[in-house]
Design goal:
The complex is a heterodimer of chains A (about 400) and B (about 170). Helix content of chain A is about 50%, strand content about 10%. With about 170 residues, chain B is an alpha/beta fold. Chain B has one domain: NADH:ubiquinone oxidoreductase Nqo5 subunit (Beta Polymerase, domain 2), CATH 3.30.460. The chains are: A mainly alpha (about 400), B alpha/beta (about 170).
Chain lengths: ~400, ~170
């Protein structure tokens, strides 16, 4: 096909070499293909091909009731699934006009900030691996496991979490979850500090990352960048601060910004965001003490599935269960856009509803998809090895890229 | 909410474009306007470049399909003004036989892939787009799968027939 990128090079006059970087390449951390024209080690031009793991989530979502769409959102940015899950729940709650209790909001903040830590943790430590420092990765990986164990106590699963329900959580946090959370809050800052010591002032790391792939704020906004990579260019746009959701307005936190948008600045922004996330979790734990400890969901029997024991033993619960599962409850005929600050930027849900049990149209504004489109352009003139660390610092997640 | 109210925003836009822009509504505080494809780029460019509005951030471009009505395909733009902290939604509806609309890549580079995705799933042709080809689906696909007439599953597939499951 005419529009296909060039895979072979038959022109004898051409002194450039063609390199297929991907779709499966150990250095790209996912299914990304870039067909690069190389002059020695320098990239002359590149074409990105995406869509290798496209799973048609938007189409599937048109055939699923609202509560069955949560598992689809898991598989967008699977490094921070809980943020996607919560973003989806909040979109539906906004549509249905459900007010969640403060305790639910604070519990959500805890889970979302844990997810943000695990997302940034992977990105920064993998960036270190790509620059040649594998130690830090193996060291901090243990704490991603600690975060996954907290998820496990709350919802039973680890990577694709399906955590929470429309209106709140499926069950209350148990004491083990809080114990594990406190243990994490005690141990992780020491580890993070040590990881910082390993990289932040490390001469090799700085030489490899500073002034690499620097992006101006104008370019970043022109390409609709959002998230840590936009903040690294000096724009203080964070959805949590601009349009607070889930009671983020009750919390004190800072939005770290960088200066010239290079790989080193992105690293620093993500690193500082992890400290801010820890701060948010600490505050949430203090706030939780003032809330009644038995509330973990909003009182919306029309949309929140009753406990199974009640379904078998209680007439009303059985009716609600039936109505929810069969989708017999009318919903507003309107449209809603809700954005949350995902691990990679503004994760938006545009939901058009026609009053039925499933969305008429659901569109995900996926930050990885939008952030990645500058990649081929910005790689031009770059060394191949710099393009690799540029990709890992963009933190493009294949699931979110292709939806 | 933002520093500029939806009423002021609407007044500014209707002073400039009069009846070329109509109001659809304000669902959940997000001002939604409808316009035609002849002036969509003018409207977007006005929103982006006006010193008071500064909708410099293109959040999203997507589309929607309403089979059975005259103008079936709707293209939906979400813009954000970080300075004023206000969002706006713009819609353009097109006839199914003539789904052409000028490209927004003249205003934002970020529109490139968003428009390619919209083309890929709805078949909307963005006139003047530098590289309008499929992005997530395979290149030799002929259908536009997010249109409502496209089935979720291939109706001819046999691997889910009941007799495989002893039913």
């Amino acid at each position: 096909m005419q529009n296909h990128p060039v895979y072979t090079d038959n022109d004898p006059q051409n002194e450039l070499s063609t390199l297929n970087l991907g779709p499966t390449h150990p250095a790209t951390h996912g299914v990304f293909q870039n067909v690069l024209q190389l002059d020695g080690e320098r990239i002359v031009s590149g074409v990105s091909t995406i869509g290798y793991i496209h799973r048609a989530f938007e189409k599937i979502a048109e055939h699923r009731p609202f509560y069955q769409i949560t598992p689809l959102t898991d598989r967008l940015n699977y490094c921070s699934s809980p943020i996607n899950n919560m973003g989806w729940h909040m979109t539906v709650e906004k549509l249905l006009g459900i007010e969640t209790p403060k305790r639910v909001d604070y519990l959500r903040v805890i889970i979302m900030e844990l997810a943000r830590i695990s997302d940034h943790l992977i990105c920064n430590s993998v960036l270190a691996v790509d620059t040649g420092a594998a130690t830090g990765f193996f060291y901090v990986m243990e704490y991603r496991e600690a975060i996954y164990e907290i998820y496990e106590e709350v919802c039973g699963s680890r990577l694709t979490t399906n955590i929470g329900r429309i209106g709140g959580f499926e069950r209350n946090f148990n004491q083990i979850a809080f114990r594990k959370l406190r243990k994490f809050l005690k141990e992780y800052p020491i580890v993070l500090k040590e990881f910082e010591n390993l990289t932040k002032r490390n001469r090799i790391f700085i030489d490899r990352t500073r002034d690499v792939a620097a992006v101006t704020a104008e370019d970043a906004l022109n390409y609709s960048w959002s998230g840590p990579i936009l903040r690294a260019t000096g724009v203080d746009y964070d959805v949590r601060a601009m349009e607070p959701y889930s009671s983020y307005e009750d919390f004190e936190f800072e939005v770290p910004v960088g200066s010239n948008g290079d790989v080193y600045n992105r690293y620093l922004v993500r690193n500082e965001e992890m400290w801010q996330s820890l701060r948010l979790i600490e505050q949430a734990l203090v706030k939780l003490e003032k809330e009644p400890s038995d509330i973990f969901h909003a009182d919306v029997p029309d949309f929140y599935l009753p406990p199974k024991e009640d379904v078998y033993n209680n007439m009303e619960a059985l009716i609600y269960h039936f109505k929810i599962v069969m989708g017999e409850i009318p919903t507003p005929n309107t449209e809603v856009y809700h954005a949350v600050e995902g691990g990679n930027g503004e994760l938006g849900f545009y939901l058009v509803n026609d009053g039925g049990r499933s969305p008429y149209r659901l569109h995900f504004r996926r930050p990885s998809f939008i952030n990645y489109q500058m990649y081929a352009d910005m790689s031009r003139g770059m060394l191949l090895s710099d393009a690799i660390i540029n990709m890992s610092s963009l933190n493009v997640i294949a699931g979110e890229l292709d939806a | 909410m933002g520093k500029i109210s939806n009423e002021d925003l609407l007044k500014k836009i209707s002073d400039k474009f009069h009846d070329q822009v109509t109001t659809v509504g304000e669902p959940f505080g997000l001002l939604t306007l409808e316009t035609g494809r002849e002036q969509i780029i003018d409207v977007l460019s006005y929103l982006k470049n006006d010193a008071a509005l500064q909708f410099i951030f293109l959040t999203d471009i997507t589309a929607i399909h309403y089979p059975g009505i005259e103008r079936q395909i709707g293209i939906i733009y979400h813009l954000h003004s970080p300075v004023n902290n206000v969002r706006i939604r713009l819609k353009v509806f097109l006839n199914d036989g003539d789904v052409h609309i000028p490209t927004a890549t003249v205003l934002w580079n970020g529109a490139n892939w968003m428009e390619r995705e919209t083309y890929d799933f709805f078949g909307v042709i963005f006139d003047g787009h530098p590289d309008l080809r499929r992005i997530l689906n395979v290149d030799d696909m002929v259908a536009f799968p997010m249109r409502k007439e496209f089935p979720l599953e291939d109706p001819n597939r046999v691997d889910k027939k009941d007799y495989f499951f002893g039913r």
